[in-house]
Amino acid sequence: MLSPSHNKVILVGRSGVGKSSLISRQVNNVFNRFHEASIGAAYNNISFNIDNGTTIDYGVWDTAGQERYDALIPLYFRGCRVVVVVFDLSNRESFKKARYWLKTITENYNDGIDGYILVGSKLDLVDKRQITIDEAYILASKYSCHYYETSSLTGENINELFRQIALIIFNSAPRYETVNFINESLHDDIIIKEPSGNKPWRENIYSYYCC
Ligand SMILES: Nc1nc2c(ncn2[C@@H]2O[C@H](COP(=O)(O)OP(=O)(O)OP(=O)(O)O)[C@@H](O)[C@H]2O)c(=O)[nH]1
Ligand SMILES: [Mg+2]
Q1: Please, what sign has the CA dihedral across residues 153, 48, 162, 58?
Q2: Other C-beta atoms within 10 Å of 43: how many?
Q3: Nearest protein CA to atom 15 of ligand 1, as residue
C-alpha cells in the first residue's frame, strides 16, 4: 500500500554553528544566548504558508554537530528531501565542515534529495566575519545549493530560509512510500533524549533501528 511520505529535512553542521537556534527562532521566536549542545537529533514539525495560500508541512531533524555524532548522522538522511548545511560566518573551521558535509552527502546519500541549502549563520557578528560572500557562493554553486545568510539573534532571513525549504518541497514531485505501520511509527518517534537511568543513549537509538 502506498501513502504520501512525510517531508523530511535535515540540518547538519559543526557544533555551535547555530542549528538549534535556527529552529527555536522559527518555531518559538526565541533566541538563547547559551550553547546547549544537542545530543543525537531532535525532530521538529513546521507548517509554512507559502504565497499562494498553500501550507507545506515538514519535519526537520536538528542533528548534533559534535564530532562524536558524525557516524550516526547518515542514519537520518533516509527519506530526507531537503538538506540544510549550516556554517558560522565567523568560524573558518565550520566552513570546512560544511564543505565536508556537502561532499559526503552528494557523493553517498544524494538519492531522493530534492534540494540543498547552504546557510551562513551569525550574520550579526559583522566584525568577526571570516568567510566572504564570494567564497560561500563558490561552495554553494559547486553543489547547486541555495545560499542564505541568517541571524537567529536578529531574525534576519530566518523566515526566508524556512520558506525556501517549503518551496523546494512544493516544487518537487510528491513522494510515496510503502506503508509499514511498525517502521513508520518507530521512525517518527526517534527523538533522541538524554540517557535515562544508566542506559547510554546509543542503546536507545539502536533499539529503534534494530526492530
Ligand atoms: N550572535 C549570534 N549567536 C548565535 C546565532 N545563532 C546561534 N548563536 C549562538 O551560538 C551558540 C550555539 O548555538 P546552537 O544553536 O546551540 O548551535 P548548534 O549548531 O545547535 O550546536 P550543536 O547542537 O552543538 O550542534 C549559542 O551560544 C547561540 O546563542 C546568531 O545568529 N548570532
Ligand atoms: Mg543544537
Answers
A1: positive
A2: 17
A3: 18
Categorize the per-residue pLDDT at 204 as very low, low, confident or very high, splitting at 50, 70 and 90.
Answer: very low
Cell of 161: 530560509
> Which pLDDT band holds residue 139 (cuts at 50, 70, 90)?
very high
Check residue 1 and give its pLDDT.
52
**Looking at domain 8-171, which CATH architecture does it have?**
3-Layer(aba) Sandwich (3.40)
150: DSSP letter: -
Confidence of residue 51 (pLDDT cuts 50, 70, 90): confident
Residues 6 or more apart whose CB falls under 8 angstroms from that of 17 comprise 65, 86, 87, 88, 91, 94, 121, 122
Query: DSSP label at 53?
Result: S
- The residue to mutate among 21, 73, 148, having the most atoms of ligand 1 within 8 angstroms of its beta carbon, is 21
Task: Return the bridge partners of 178, or none.
Answer: 2
Domain residue extents for the chain: 8-171, 178-209
Q: Which residues pair with 177 in a beta bridge?
A: 3
